[in-house]
């Protein structure tokens, strides 16, 4: 049994790109003879993982795969196309000759300038000695100094020109030598092939499907949001990088968030004993509390610096490209369109002064893509063009989406907070009163008209123990909040005319019993 001398082409037809690798699928039609035979297929990427190789033949043909394995060899690659070698060598020889002559000329000019410098020093010393002894020959001294200075300037300019030409010759020679190295040397390249051993009971064509995993490929989601009045168009793309050693040309591309490298075994269940004990006297006398910051729970992990992983909400997601795509193996980022939809959008100007003094245009719309929107960067485009880049969080199908389309520079918000503390005489309760004042200003052009509603949000602490009470003093607020939700977020709808100013005051009390410590 011998291997066919000429390898059979095995192109990439389908790719499933994962978070940090790719699953490659190749198909080819083989002309099999009767009996056991070995076929060499390829070339394929040398990065293919051997233990993931899987080959199967079409069921309608009576043939069986006996063995499949990767074979890697070092073979010289083709020379890079360049100019003719003899012309390169002639040009290099000419430049080297010119460089040699310029170096001699530079040395002669340097020596001449050195002599002229010594002559100028001798002439100045002669003038000094003559003037000290009473001799006065001003016209001759001026004439000699002018002649020496003129020659020094002339030869100095020639030296600078020679050095400049030498620098340009060195640059050109370096480029020519690199071109010669590319055109005349043949660097070794690692090339992979697949050796397939099959047993066919009858001769005839059969379709082969071969798959394997390969590293050096990944993808991340990216979006483009175009806001046009009360309509928003969201385009979903996949940014694909791959340097597997071969190009993917007109392949069916599938994007998956499955993590094949992670263990699939369920975690071991361990014993967790809970014990109930009596409180001590000190614990019964006092209640320890603390003020803490707590983010409102959301789906997905916290963001990290650098290139983050794909946030799929804890469930493997599969997205597909609607048309065949081509991704070169150059390691660069290539955008692949996935889907697009247009939905009605509502816009509001929102501000949370405790977090930021900026007023931001927030756009709300529903996810009408039919699939989950994975977390990723989004390019923001308004009527005036590109306005910036934001971040889209993980969003389930049909769920609302909020995008910030940048801040409004003609708005200003200043936040002031003060606190007072008092103790009731009989109950010995500690009462902490906090007053927050928000000053909003709008700087408008002279011809601008119409009010703009700014939604202002300020938070109020939420108590988790009965010993601490939080009360909103609506009678002291100016104006009273339009609503306060379960997370303690107070909201106002403030209308600002052009050039207008408004002040919002929020007052609330924290009341704690005498046995509470930590307030």
Structural account:
The protein is of the alpha+beta class and 519 residues long. It has four domains: 12-78 and 188-214; 85-184, Helix Hairpins, CATH 1.10.287; 217-260 and 309-407, no CATH class; 411-517, no CATH class. It is built from three helices and 27 strands. It has helices at residues 85-132, 138-184, 281-285, and strands at residues 12-17, 22-32, 35-44, 54-57, 63-76, 188-200, 204-214, 217-228, 231-242, 248-256, 287-288, 318-320, 325-327, 334-344, 346-351, 360-366, 376-382, 385-392, 400-407, 411-423, 430-442, 452-459, 468-472, 483-484, 489-496, 501-512, 516-517. The strands form six sheets. Strands 1, 2, 4, 7, 10, 12 and 13 form a seven-stranded mixed sheet that branches. Strands 19-16-15-22-25-24 form a six-stranded mixed sheet, with no helix packed on it. A five-stranded mixed sheet has the order 14-9-8-17-18, with no helix packed on it. Helix 1 (85-132) runs antiparallel to helix 2 (138-184). The longest helix has 48 residues, at 85-132. The protein is flat and about 110 Å long. The chain starts with 11 loop residues before the first strand and ends with a strand.
Structure at a glance:
The chain has helices spanning 85-132, 138-184, 281-285; strands at 12-17, 22-32, 35-44, 54-57, 63-76, 188-200, 204-214, 217-228, 231-242, 248-256, 287-288, 318-320, 325-327, 334-344, 346-351, 360-366, 376-382, 385-392, 400-407, 411-423, 430-442, 452-459, 468-472, 483-484, 489-496, 501-512, 516-517.
């Amino acid at each position: 049994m011998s291997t066919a001398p000429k390898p059979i082409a095995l192109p990439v037809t389908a790719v499933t790109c994962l978070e940090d690798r790719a699953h490659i699928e190749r198909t080819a039609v083989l002309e099999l003879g009767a009996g056991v035979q070995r076929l060499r297929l390829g070339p394929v990427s040398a990065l293919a993982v051997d233990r993931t190789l899987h080959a199967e033949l079409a069921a309608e043909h009576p043939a069986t795969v006996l063995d499949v394995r990767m074979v890697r060899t070092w073979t010289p690659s083709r020379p890079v196309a360049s100019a003719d070698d003899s012309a390169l060598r002639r040009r290099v020889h000419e430049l080297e000759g010119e460089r040699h002559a310029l170096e001699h000329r530079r040395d002669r000019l340097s020596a001449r300038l050195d002599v002229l410098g010594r002559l100028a020093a001798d002439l100045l010393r002669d003038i000094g000695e003559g003037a000290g002894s009473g001799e006065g020959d001003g016209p001759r001294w001026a004439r000699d100094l002018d002649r020496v200075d003129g020659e020094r300037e002339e030869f100095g300019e020639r030296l600078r020109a020679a050095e400049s030409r030498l620098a340009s010759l060195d640059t050109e020679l370096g480029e020519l030598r690199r071109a010669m190295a590319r055109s005349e040397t043949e660097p070794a390249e690692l090339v992979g092939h697949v050796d397939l051993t099959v047993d066919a009971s009858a001769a005839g064509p059969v379709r082969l499907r071969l798959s394997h995993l390969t590293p050096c490929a990944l993808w991340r989601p990216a979006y483009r949001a175009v806001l046009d009045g009360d309509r928003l168009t969201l385009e979903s793309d996949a940014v694909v990088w791959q340097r597997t050693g071969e190009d993917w040309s007109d392949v069916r591309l599938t994007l998956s968030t499955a993590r094949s490298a992670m263990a699939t075994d369920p975690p071991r269940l361990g014993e967790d004993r809970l014990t109930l004990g009596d409180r001590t006297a000190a614990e019964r006398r006092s209640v320890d509390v603390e003020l803490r910051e707590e983010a409102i729970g959301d789906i997905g992990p916290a963001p990290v610096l650098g290139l983050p992983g794909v946030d799929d909400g804890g469930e493997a997601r599969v997205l597909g490209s609607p048309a065949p795509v081509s991704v070169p193996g150059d390691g660069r980022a290539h955008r692949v369109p996935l889907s697009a939809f247009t939905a009605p959008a509502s816009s509001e100007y929102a501000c949370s002064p405790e977090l930021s003094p900026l007023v931001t245009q927030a756009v709300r719309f529903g996810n009408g893509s039919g699939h989950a929107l994975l977390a990723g960067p989004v390019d923001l485009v308004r009527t005036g063009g590109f306005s910036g880049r934001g971040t889209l969080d993980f969003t389930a199908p049909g769920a609302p989406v909020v995008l910030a389309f940048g801040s409004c520079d003609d708005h200003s918000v200043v936040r002031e907070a003060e606190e007072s503390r008092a103790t009731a005489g009989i109950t010995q309760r500690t009462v902490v009163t906090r007053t927050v004042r928000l000053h909003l200003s709008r700087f408008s052009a002279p011809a601008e008209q119409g009010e703009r509603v700014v939604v202002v949000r300020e938070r109020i602490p939420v108590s988790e123990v009965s010993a601490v009470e939080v009360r909103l003093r609506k009678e002291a607020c100016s104006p009273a909040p339009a609503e306060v939700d379960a997370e303690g977020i107070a909201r106002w709808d403030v209308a600002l005319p052009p050039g207008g100013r408004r002040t919002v005051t929020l007052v609330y009390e924290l009341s704690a019993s005498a046995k509470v410590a930590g307030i």
